[in-house]
Amino acid sequence: MYESIANQRFFRSKQAGITELKQLATADVGNATWALVDVDGDLYQLILSGQQDVLDSPEVLAHIQECFDREEAFGLGELEVLSRPVIPAEPQVSVSTAEQSNSSLIFRGEKPAIAKLFRMLEPGINPDVELLTGLAGQKCSYVPALRAYSTVEWDGETYVTAMVQDFAEGCEEGWARATATAEPFTEDAAMIGEALRHIHHDLAQAFGSDVVPAAQVIDGLKRRMESLICQAEVLEEFRPAITAVYEEASAGETTIQRIHGDAHLGQILRSSDRYLFIDFEGEPARPLSERRGKFSPLQDVAGLVRSFDYAAHFGGRIADPETWAKESTDVFLAAYRAQDSALLRALILDKALYEVVYEANNRPDWLHIPLEAVKRLVG
């Protein structure tokens, strides 16, 4: 089982490896076994046959379908139903290959649905479930509606194990759409800005907002700056200029609220008349308790601004990527109704610093994209 888990895409500690593994609970899932497993203190849910994860087994898929048809959770736990049907009648079921940290099942048919199975389980309400529930209460039409979610109790804590929501059949991922052509992306950028504006409004209505000193937001960026500079020496020369940008943004007050938390072009889907935002879990590297906090909504705005820059440079298809990115950004900000503020600039810079560290460690050929952005932002 060690090798089976360690080689899975959803296992988050590949570099450290596994030192201790304990099987905590099991239940029958078709001809396989649902297992709750403790891996060095982290909880995972697995679908096992022998020592292999077999979620894609036809018998397992049929069992999960039957459970959802009966409005029951598969494995252990309870299913909370928000809207019906949970899945379409007599669906065609398949395993999506798109997920990284979770697994998804697609149920095609009338009113198609997608079920996300959370592989690494964290105690407490999952932000994806929590925020989509709140948005449902506001009748938000810029997200695929949540239909149901399942939870399991273990050692006095509640864990969300799966969620089912509308499947956006025929939609195109924002990143794929943006990088498929050298044509301007301004029409789409405006639609993205409008969608994000409505989502932030509805999240504020559902969960409230607070007015805080801008310095409170900037203090967090300063702490992160120190950590990021330690991880990428190439950033050291920019320390004084970065600090100056942050100081300029620390005056006055700003609003914080619940946000998407990991907004970029890969997290949105283009339907016939609008963009839909998906995956409200927040940044995977942050602990769940932190992801459920309130942040500046401009953090989501900054994430998409940086995503436009990446899309502009991807594949060398655009002769003038800076102009393409700026035009997309300007239209996006206008549709969102965001002012070009010092705080927004600081948050965009924070994103670019993180990207420098990521690219230096993972894709050095891409390092020039965020590094040039840092130079522009501090210039």
What does this structure look like?
This protein is of the alpha+beta class and 379 residues long. It folds into two domains: 2-166, no CATH class; 172-378, Alpha-Beta Complex (Aminoglycoside 3'-phosphotransferase, Chain: A, domain 2), CATH 3.90.1200.10. It has twelve helices and 16 strands. The protein has helices at residues 2-6, 58-69, 127-137, 174-178, 186-207, 214-231, 239-248, 288-291, 298-313, 321-336, 342-362, 368-378, and strands at residues 21-29, 32-39, 42-49, 52-53, 78-81, 92-95, 102-108, 113-118, 120-121, 146-154, 157-166, 172-173, 209-213, 253-257, 268-270, 275-277. Strands 5-10-11-8-7-6 form a six-stranded antiparallel β-sheet, sandwiched between helices. Strands 1, 2, 3, 4 and 9 form a five-stranded antiparallel β-sheet that branches. β1 and β2 form a beta hairpin. α7 packs antiparallel against α11. The longest helix is centred in the middle third of the chain and has 22 residues, at 186-207. It is globular and about 60 Å long. The N and C termini lie far apart (52 Å). Its EC number is 2.7.1.175. It comes from Corynebacterium kalinowskii. This is Maltokinase.
Counting H and I runs of at least 4 residues, what is the number of helices?
12
The biggest sheet, with number of strands, parallel, antiparallel or mixed sense and barrel status, is: 6 strands, antiparallel
Please name the fourth-level CATH homologous superfamily of the largest domain: Aminoglycoside phosphotransferase (APH), C-terminal lobe
Q: State the helicity in percent bands.
A: 25-40%
What is the CATH-assigned architecture of the largest domain? Alpha-Beta Complex
Radius of gyration: 22 Å
Examine the coordinates and then state which fold CATH places here, giving the name of the CATH topology of the largest domain: Aminoglycoside 3'-phosphotransferase, Chain: A, domain 2
What order do the SSEs take from the amino end to the carboxyl end, as H and E? HEEEEHEEEEEHEEEHHEHHEEEHHHHH
Which term fits the overall shape?
Answer: globular
**Strand order, biggest sheet?**
5-10-11-8-7-6
* Percentage of residues in DSSP E strands: 15-25%
